[in-house]
């Protein structure tokens, strides 16, 4: 360990008459060769049907990739493997040499590979299935079909380590045929979907449900109701092509009958409202021919041209939840059931004339009031997506829809346990597959990373469950989501840990009611052990908590700020932090870090609840700006966690004199448990 220089610097500053704020405390700074380090996850997600991982690795030196066959999926597999090498290792993966050990990707259509898989005892002929083995003789991915080979390559990517490819013997195939994830098109589409689509492919989804209401269709532009926040037609086409190049079928979702506020944007088409008195129109008038001739059918035609889909999802959910339906006199004479059925038949027939299938949500057509009459009048090739968003294992409408003769898919959302239980029920109940929905707002694409990140985490949990419903629920889904969406290199970044002991205001263990948050030994952080340790991607020196003032009685007498004297250069700072209690509202400002440089200039890093930090008892990762760091339990069994916030220094060549943590004094009082410098000399 090198001696701390901060104390010497402080004495020099004092002797020179430099001003030092009251409470500034020198701290011990210790070099850390791996202050930040991304490491491969130990397991494979989704968990394969059958897998063994013998000891040993296949060395990377001289390794190249060989593709056997001309299917596009095989070329995509090689592309993704090369991208993994470049991202994780900063190295290229060349074509395999004519002789020697290699990575071989192909299918059972090749007799030699089929014989090798048979000899290895790993052959599978299940659709989308694959055999994979890595040993001293090389790495082999043999798909039952081209799609299986591509999916097998996604598993092989997860076996990459800085030292080589982990030995493995895997036979795998999905339990559910359709595994669909929902994405959005808006003006922020490119920055989000260019990350999401490769991630979804790596997780072995095979289709995307694309929310397309606000695409700037030519019809919408000509009619004056194109929304400026919507994606362009060109972007919609680009996203569709990108998805297909990652093996994902594209299923556009264009909400019709209900949820059609998109067609009334700018006050247009108000003559087509179902409810003439509605100030916020929700449904359209099915008895006005202009509804179809002017708006709906032209847009469906454009969607077919742009997306080239096999199926379009037509929505048809919650049709009567807002406006009166029917509201017009002629509609009341016809009756709701006839209006609903006639609309479905019209749209279904129009799409079928273009060789495109149709899908709807289940809730209106199979509601208790009409389930005995409406389904019997609908075409049996209509796919029905049954959504249910609560955890559980019993989903009775699966059987109701299936027994009525329709292909049925389950649709889950973000609550832990929802996708897992629903996927098991779907696999056991003969469903066609599952959809992982995402409801982040029509123009809320970036929130899948910052704002509604729990819905991004749910993609990882759902992928695991949809592929292999028998697998246990994931415990590291948030960390995997962060890594898949924003992958980092397997390369250590040097830095230094800061021992905060001189500033600690609360012990992690509360033996006498005066530690942590003052609730006693059963509700504290004693299971976070002190000392230098790796927590998530970072190394911290934990010695207690620099907890600041809050509105709760047990912390109202704590300091309002803490000043950490550093006098160091760094490319970044990482804060291991939490709050004692949750904030009242999301994005509430609970404090800030003031970073002061040696030249007297400052940077301020605000701390917004849910965005930059959250309470130790709050497990909902609404933002991925902070990284998962530590999870554990209290003495009474409560699940708790800490996150790490990395700040990139815009002036890495200038000495950081000090860092001051300031509390706003509210319910969510900040607590700093570790500080690490990145790139520090």
From TrEMBL:
Secretion signal span: 1-24
Keyword Hydrolase assigned: yes
Origin: domain of life: Bacteria
Gene3D superfamilies associated with the record: Chitobiase/beta-hexosaminidase domain 2-like (3.30.379.10), Glycosidases (3.20.20.80)
Domain Beta-hexosaminidase bacterial type N-terminal as annotated: residue spans: 42-173
InterPro entries for this protein: GH (IPR017853), Glyco_hydro_20_cat (IPR015883), Hex-like_dom2 (IPR029018), HEX_bac_N (IPR015882), HEXDC-like (IPR038901)
Domain named Glycoside hydrolase family 20 catalytic: residues: 231-389
Keyword hit for Zinc: no
Assigned keywords, A-Z: Glycosidase, Hydrolase, Signal
Family: Belongs to the glycosyl hydrolase 20 family.
PANTHER family attached to this UniProt entry: BCDNA.GH04120
Protein name (record): Beta-N-acetylhexosaminidase
Lineage per the UniProt record: Bacteria, Thermotogati, Deinococcota, Deinococci, Deinococcales
């Amino acid at each position: 360990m090198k001696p701390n220089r901060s104390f010497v610097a402080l004495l020099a500053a004092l002797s020179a008459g430099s001003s030092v704020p009251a409470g500034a405390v020198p701290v011990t700074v210790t070099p850390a060769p791996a202050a930040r380090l991304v490491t491969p996850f130990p397991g494979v997600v989704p968990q394969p049907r059958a897998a063994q991982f013998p000891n040993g690795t296949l060395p990377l030196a001289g390794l190249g990739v060989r593709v056997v066959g001309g299917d596009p999926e095989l070329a995509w597999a090689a592309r993704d493997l090369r991208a993994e090498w470049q991202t994780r290792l900063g190295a290229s993966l060349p074509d395999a040499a004519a002789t020697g050990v290699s990575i071989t990707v192909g299918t059972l259509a090749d007799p030699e590979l089929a014989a090798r898989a048979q000899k290895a005892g790993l052959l599978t002929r299940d659709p989308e299935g694959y055999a994979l083995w890595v040993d001293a003789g090389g790495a082999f991915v043999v798909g039952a079909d081209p799609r299986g080979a591509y999916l097998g390559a996604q598993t092989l990517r997860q076996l990459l380590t800085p030292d080589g490819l982990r030995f493995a013997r895997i036979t795998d195939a999905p339990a559910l045929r359709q595994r669909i994830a929902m994405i959005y098109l808006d003006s922020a589409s490119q920055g989000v979907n260019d990350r999401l689509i490769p991630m979804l492919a790596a997780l072995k989804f095979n289709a995307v449900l694309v929310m397309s209401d606000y695409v700037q269709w030519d019809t919408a532009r000509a009619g004056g109701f194109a929304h400026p926040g919507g994606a362009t037609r060109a972007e919609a086409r680009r996203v569709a092509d990108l998805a297909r190049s990652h093996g994902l079928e594209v299923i556009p979702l264009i909400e019709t009958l209900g949820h059609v506020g998109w067609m009334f944007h700018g006050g247009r088409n108000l003559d087509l409202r179902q409810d003439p008195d509605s100030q916020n129109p929700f449904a359209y008038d099915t008895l006005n021919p202009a509804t179809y001739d002017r708006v709906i059918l032209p847009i469906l035609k454009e969607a077919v041209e742009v997306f080239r889909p096999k199926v379009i999802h037509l929505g048809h959910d919650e049709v009567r939840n807002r406006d009166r339906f029917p509201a017009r006199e002629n509609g009341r004479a016809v009756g709701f059931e006839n209006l609903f059925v006639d609309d479905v038949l019209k749209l279904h027939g129009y799409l079928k004339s273009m060789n495109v299938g149709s899908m709807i949500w289940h809730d209106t057509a199979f509601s208790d009031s009409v389930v005995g009459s409406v389904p019997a009048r609908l075409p049996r090739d209509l796919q029905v997506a049954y959504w249910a968003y609560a955890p559980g294992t019993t989903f009775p409408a699966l059987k109701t829809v299936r027994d009525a003769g329709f292909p049925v898919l389950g649709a889950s959302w973000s609550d832990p346990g929802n996708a897992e239980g629903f996927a098991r029920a779907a696999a056991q109940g003969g469903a066609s597959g599952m959809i992982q929905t995402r409801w982040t707002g029509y123009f809320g694409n970036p929130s899948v990373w910052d704002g509604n990140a729990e819905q991004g985490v749910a993609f990882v949990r759902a992928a695991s469950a949809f592929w292999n419903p028998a697998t246990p629920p994931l415990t590291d889904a948030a960390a995997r989501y962060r890594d898949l969406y924003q992958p980092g290199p397997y390369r250590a970044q040097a830095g230094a840990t800061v021992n905060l002991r001189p500033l600690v205001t609360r012990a992690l263990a509360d033996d006498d009611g005066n530690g942590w948050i003052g609730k006693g030994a059963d509700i504290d952080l004693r299971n976070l052990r002190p000392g230098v340790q790796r927590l998530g991607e970072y190394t911290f020196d934990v010695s207690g908590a620099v907890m600041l003032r809050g509105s709760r009685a047990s912390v109202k007498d704590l300091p309002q700020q803490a000043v950490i004297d550093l006098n160091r250069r760094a490319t970044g700072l990482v804060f291991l932090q939490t709050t004692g209690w949750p904030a009242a509202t999301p994005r509430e400002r609970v404090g800030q870090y003031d970073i002061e440089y040696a030249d007297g200039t400052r940077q301020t890093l605000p701390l917004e609840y849910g965005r930059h930090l959250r309470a130790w008892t709050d497990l909902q990762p609404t933002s991925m700006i902070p990284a998962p760091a530590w999870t554990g339990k209290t003495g009474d069994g409560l699940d708790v966690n800490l996150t790490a916030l990395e700040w990139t220094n815009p002036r890495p060549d200038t000495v950081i004199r000090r860092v001051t943590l300031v509390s706003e004094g509210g319910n969510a009082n900040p607590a700093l448990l570790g500080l690490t410098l990145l790139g520090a000399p």
